[in-house]
Amino acid sequence: MALYSLNILSVNWLGVVLIGLGILFFILEAITPLFGGLALAGTISILLGSIILLPSDSPYGDLSLSVIIPVVLFSAVFFFIVSYLSLKVHKEKPKTGIEAMVGDIAEVVSDIDKKGGKVMYHGELWNAYSDKFIPAGSKVKIVEVNGLKLKVEEVKE
């Protein structure tokens, strides 16, 4: 339907390509946040594409700047907000999984040395090892997760 309409209207295909490119830039910005660079390129691309979309000698008239500017500004603000929120989420520490364990504190249940020992982490008993001897009752920081074993180091209080 849209292609049929574009065939009836005399449109500048460069304008259509620029608008499509702008939408692609917005999508890429949402997927891979580049601090708003792609969103800015998308805004400029959609603005230029909208301005040259319909020729001024068209019997249907051209697009008014009073329509183009608010639509482009709304789109730009929306995608800048999405980019900001996406970047904020990427910077947050993971809340689940193995990545979330690294850096957390556990309590030593049985003495730990290079051969191993046991720690209590969030109510679960884990096998652990360390380069140095750590006595039971100490607090340790999880440095690395290797399968079902945790590499830990003692936390100095």
Description:
47% of the residues lie in helices and 20% in strands. By secondary structure, it is α+β, with helices and mostly antiparallel strands. The chain has 2 domains: 2-91, no CATH class; 98-154, Nucleic acid-binding proteins (OB fold (Dihydrolipoamide Acetyltransferase, E2P)), CATH 2.40.50.140. Strand 2 and strand 3 form a beta hairpin. Helix 2 (13-31) runs antiparallel to helix 3, helix 2 (13-31) packs parallel to helix 4 and helix 3 (37-53) packs antiparallel against helix 4. The longest helix is centred in the middle third of the chain and has 27 residues, at 65-91. The mean pLDDT is 84.
Give a summary of the structure in a few sentences.
The chain is an alpha+beta fold and 157 residues long.
Structural class: alpha+beta
| Largest beta-sheet characterization | 5 strands, mixed, barrel
Oligomer: single chain
Total beta-strand segments: 5
- Runs in which pLDDT lies below 50 for 5 or more consecutive residues are none
Estimated share of beta-strand residues = 15-25%
Give the number of domains: 2
Rg of Cα set:
28 Å
- What is the tally of helical segments? 5
Strand order of the largest sheet: 1-2-3-5-4
The shape is rod-shaped
Mean pLDDT: 84
The span between the termini is 70 Å
The helix-strand sequence is HHHHHEEEEE
Helix content: 40-55%
